[in-house]
Amino acid sequence: MLAPRIAPLEPPYPAEMQADFDKLMRGAPPLLLFRTVARNPRVLQRFMAGALLDRGSISLRSRELMILRTCARCGAEYEWGVHVAVFGAKAQWNPEELHSTVHGAAEDGCWSAEDRLVIGLADQLHDTTQVDDPLWQELAKHFTAEQLVELIMLAGLYHGVSYLINAAGVQHEAFAPRFPPR
Question: How does pLDDT run across 46-83, given as a tens digit for each residue?
């Protein structure tokens, strides 16, 4: 796709929207994704209110792994790259793990037991919209009900984000890495 199907909103932004962008981005220019969603200010407000990037019930690493794997499975290179750029150092990803989020499997040797469960959950939700009993039983040994709800909602939210990115043709951010080559 050469050009976005929905052009991102250009500045100057309405005062309320600018204030929301400033709060969300801490003074940095708003991402192309947010500027695209801003074509519908009501949806932007709901989207920003529904974000799960605060300190939740799961570790930052598990949160980011669910997001990276979900975006990779959906082919949403834009969002995968933004999350690697913004949260990658905090999550302490190494090149082998980043490669595996896109091209690997839960069984890859680079993953901890907890990481394997998160990837397995992301994959089953993506492939079937379900979680089979054996995986659920393992998940329940490592995560609380509160944490499982958060992981599942993250998968759903980032499927929606991926749909928007892919369908609207949101262009790649210059600061964000691309998917690693096979």
Answer: 888 877 888 899 999 999 999 999 999 999 999 999 99
Count of Cβ atoms closer than 10 Å to residue 35 Cβ? 22
Phi, psi of 92 (to 5 degrees): 60, 45
Which residues, 6 or more positions from 99, have their beta carbon under 8 angstroms from its beta carbon? 180
Place of tokens 């990481």: 115
DSSP state of 18: H
pLDDT one-digit tens code per residue, 27-37: 899 999 999 99
Distances (CA, A) of 128 to 131, 132, 136: 8, 9, 14
Query: Rounded to an integer, what distance in angstroms lies between the CA atom of residue 8 and that of residue 116?
Result: 36
pTM of the model: 0.94
Q: b/e map of 37-56 (b: 16 or more CB within 10 Å)?
A: bbeeeeebeebeeeeeeeeb
Distances (CA, A) of 127 to 26, 70, 71, 122, 162: 36, 11, 13, 9, 15
User: How far apart are alpha carbons 158 and 80 in whole angstroms?
Assistant: 10
What mean pLDDT, rounded, does the chain reach? Answer: 95
DSSP run (H or E) holding 44: helix 41-49
